[in-house]
C-alpha cells in the first residue's frame, strides 16, 4: 500500500475507458479516486469535496485538439479554489501548450497514454505541493485572524449579524459601569458568554467571575450556597465556608436562571442586594460585599411580575440595563460563521480532517429553525464530526429533523397548472428531504444518475 493513501483525487475526462483504468490503478494508492466525464459538474464537485489533486483533460468533445476548453476549466477551478493543484492531461505532446499550462496555474502536465509509475510520481509531487499550499493558507488565515482579533472588542463571541452588533454596542456601553445587567434569551443562546464578556471588558476584569445556577440550588441550600455558613451551623457544615457573594467580592456575580427562584428566596436575595451585606448561616455578624451583578433567565420575567410569581422590586434591582439576546433563527447571518467555528474546533479535538460543510448542508442549516439555538448547533456539529467519513460535511451527516423542530414542509404539486420544471424541482426537493440530502439515494429514487441529479441541482439552485 502506498504511503499516499490519504490523498483524494478527482479525474475529469470524456474517455470512460481511460477513467476506469485510471481509477483501478490509482485507488490502490489513494484514499479516494472520483471520476467524471462532464466538466460542467466541476463547480458542484469541488464545492462538496476538498480534492488534493484534480486531473483535468485539456480536450473534450467540443474542442478536440487546441486545449482551449481545458484552459477554460483550469481558470474556473483556480477561481473557485486558488490553492487547487491541477494536473492537465492531453494526447498531444505540444511543449508550448505545456509551458502555457504551467504559466496559467497548472501544477504539471501529463501525456496519454501514460506510464503508471510516471503518473504516480507526478501525483506524488502534486500531492506534496497541495499539502504545502494548505499549510501556507493556514498560516495566512491564522495571521489574518490574529489581526482581526486585535481590531475586534468581543473576540470571545462569534457573530457579526446586525442583531449581534446591537448586543455588542450595549456591552461596550455598559461594561465600564457597575450597573446591574439582566440578560434575557432562550435556552442555548449564550447568555453566560455575554455575561463573561461584560466582566472581561469591565474595570473588575482582574477579579473573580463567579457563576451560580439558581435553577439547580434547593431551597434548603440556597442561603449556604450564596451567603456561606459557619462550622457546625448544620449537619454537613464541617468547616467555615464563604458563599458565592463573598467569593465574588470586588468581581462579578452571575446569577443564571434567576426566573426559577421561588418567592421566599427572592425576598432574601433582594435584602442582600439592597444592603450589600451577607450574613453566613450560623453567624451573627454581617460581611460587606462589593459585587457587580449580572443575572439571566430564559423565562418571561416581565409577565411573571404581572402573575405575581416574580417580585417587581427585585426586577427593578437586577435590570438597570437589559440585554435581549436574539435566538439563532433571528441571526441567520451567523449560522455559517458558527458552524465553521465548531467544525474547526471539533475536527481538532477529535483529530479528524474535516474542513468545511458542503453547500447543500449550509443551505439546509440556513432553512432550519434551530429551536435549541447555538447549543443545538454545537452539539449537532460535534456529532457530525465524530460520525462523518468525509472531509466535507454532507447533509446526511447532520440529523436536524430528528434533533429539533421539523423543517417547513415542501409545497404540494398543483395539477391545475402543470409546469414540467416546477414539478421536477419539487420532486427533487422531496427526494432529497426523504433521504436526508443523500445524493446517491435521491438519484436512485428519481431514476436519475448522480451526474443528472447534480445538473438539475445546479439548474434549480438547490
From TrEMBL:
The modification 4-aspartylphosphate is found at residue 57. Residues 8-127 form the Response regulatory domain. GO terms for molecular function: ATP binding; sequence-specific DNA binding. Residues 129-156 form a coiled coil. Keywords: ATP-binding, Coiled coil, DNA-binding, Nucleotide-binding, Phosphoprotein, Transcription, Transcription regulation. SUPFAM superfamilies: CheY-like, Homeodomain-like, P-loop containing nucleoside triphosphate hydrolases. GO terms for biological process: phosphorelay signal transduction system; regulation of DNA-templated transcription. Gene3D superfamilies: 1.10.8.60, 3.40.50.2300, Homeodomain-like, P-loop containing nucleotide triphosphate hydrolases. Residues 157-386 form the Sigma-54 factor interaction domain. InterPro entries: AAA+_ATPase, AAA_lid_NorR, CheY-like_superfamily, Homeodomain-like_sf, HTH_Fis, P-loop_NTPase, Sig_transdc_resp-reg_receiver, Sigma_54_int. This is Sigma-54 dependent DNA-binding response regulator, Fis family.
Amino acid at each position: 500500500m502506498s504511503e499516499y493513501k490519504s490523498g483524494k483525487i478527482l479525474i475529469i475526462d470524456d474517455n470512460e475507458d481511460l477513467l476506469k483504468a485510471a481509477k483501478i490503478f490509482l485507488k490502490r494508492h489513494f484514499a479516494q479516486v472520483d471520476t467524471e466525464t462532464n466538466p460542467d459538474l466541476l463547480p458542484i464537485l469541488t464545492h462538496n469535496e476538498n480534492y488534493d489533486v484534480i486531473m483535468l483533460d485539456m480536450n473534450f468533445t467540443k474542442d478536440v485538439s487546441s486545449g482551449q476548453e481545458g484552459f477554460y476549466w483550469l481558470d474556473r477551478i483556480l477561481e473557485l479554489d486558488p490553492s487547487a493543484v491541477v494536473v492537465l492531461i492531453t494526447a498531444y505532446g505540444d511543449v508550448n501548450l505545456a509551458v502555457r499550462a504551467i504559466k496559467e496555474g497548472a501544477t504539471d502536465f501529463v501525456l496519454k497514454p501514460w506510464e503508471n509509475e510516471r503518473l504516480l510520481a507526478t501525483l506524488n509531487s502534486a500531492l506534496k505541493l497541495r499539502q504545502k499550499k494548505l499549510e501556507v493558507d493556514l498560516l495566512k488565515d491564522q495571521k489574518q485572524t490574529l489581526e482581526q482579533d486585535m481590531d475586534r472588542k468581543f473576540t470571545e463571541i462569534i457573530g457579526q449579524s446586525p442583531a449581534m452588533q446591537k448586543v455588542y454596542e450595549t456591552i461596550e456601553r455598559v461594561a465600564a459601569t457597575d450597573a446591574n445587567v439582566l440578560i434575557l434569551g432562550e435556552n442555548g443562546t449564550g447568555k453566560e458568554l455575554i455575561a463573561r464578556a461584560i466582566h472581561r471588558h469591565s474595570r473588575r476584569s482582574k477579579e473573580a467571575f463567579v457563576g451560580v445556577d439558581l435553577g439547580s440550588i434547593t431551597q434548603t441550600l440556597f442561603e449556604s450556597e450564596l451567603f456561606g455558613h459557619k462550622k457546625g451551623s448544620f449537619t454537613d457544615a464541617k468547616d467555615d465556608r464563604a458563599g458565592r457573594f463573598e467569593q465574588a467580592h470586588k468581581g462579578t456575580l452571575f446569577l443564571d436562571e434567576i426566573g426559577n427562584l421561588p418567592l421566599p428566596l427572592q425576598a432574601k436575595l433582594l435584602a442582600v442586594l439592597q444592603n450589600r451585606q451577607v450574613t453566613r448561616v450560623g453567624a451573627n455578624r454581617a460581611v460587606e460585599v462589593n459585587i457587580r451583578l449580572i443575572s439571566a433567565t430564559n423565562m418571561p420575567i416581565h409577565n411573571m411580575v404581572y402573575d405575581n410569581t416574580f417580585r417587581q422590586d427585585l426586577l427593578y434591582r437586577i435590570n438597570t440595563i437589559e440585554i435581549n439576546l436574539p435566538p439563532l433563527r433571528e441571526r441567520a447571518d451567523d449560522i455559517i460563521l458558527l458552524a465553521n467555528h465548531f467544525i474547526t474546533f471539533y475536527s481538532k479535538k477529535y483529530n479528524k480532517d474535516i474542513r468545511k460543510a458542503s453547500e447543500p448542508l449550509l443551505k439546509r442549516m440556513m432553512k432550519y429553525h434551530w429551536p435549541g439555538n447555538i447549543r443545538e448547533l454545537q452539539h449537532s456539529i460535534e456529532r457530525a464530526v465524530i460520525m462523518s467519513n468525509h472531509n466535507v460535511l454532507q447533509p446526511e451527516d447532520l440529523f436536524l429533523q430528528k434533533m429539533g423542530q421539523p423543517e417547513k414542509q415542501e409545497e404540494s404539486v398543483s395539477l391545475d397548472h402543470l409546469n414540467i420544471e416546477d414539478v421536477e424541482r419539487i420532486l427533487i426537493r422531496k427526494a432529497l428531504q426523504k433521504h436526508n440530502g443523500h445524493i446517491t439515494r435521491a438519484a436512485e429514487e428519481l431514476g436519475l444518475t448522480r451526474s443528472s441529479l447534480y445538473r438539475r441541482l445546479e439548474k434549480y439552485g438547490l
